[in-house]
Design goal:
single chain, alpha/beta, Rossmann fold, two-stranded parallel sheet, two-stranded antiparallel ribbon, 6 strands, 16% strand, globular, ATP-binding protein, P-loop_NTPase
Amino acid sequence: MVRLDDFYRDGDDAAMPRSPLGIVDWDDPRSWDGERAVAALEVLCATGVADMPIYDIAADGTIGHRPVETGGSPLIIAEGIFADQVAGALRERGLLAAAICVRHHRIVTFVRRFQRDLREHRKPPFTLLRRGLLLLKDDPRVVKRCVDAGCEPLHPKAARRRITDLLATVAG
């Protein structure tokens, strides 16, 4: 499993996009380094091991690195809000088995995101609530962006079945 969210750019980067709240807009693709993510995934696919950053949103930056190994698995799952941003480049390189947009009802996404962000102390609670409400409104646009990039919009159970089927096909 590769966490694509670990490829955010550091929050003190002057070019980071800002949300209407005046804070870094972590949901804008410009806040993220897709080229670096593709390069790391390409190395992982080619060699079976790659050095991945560890990003902490509360710290607004990379706080370390970790090796990720495939362990011989024929598939790598790369997950994150910007997976659609790398799907095309991975497809062109012959490295994409499937691109899936896992979707819940947008209220479920809002509640789960808010609970996670509070639990992880990502930002002050009021900021998280205001940001969450903006993201709730923006959810249909994000799903459309993913679909336009060639991602299959699937609910979690259907996504698990799709991945299971892919594993069976690759292993078979």
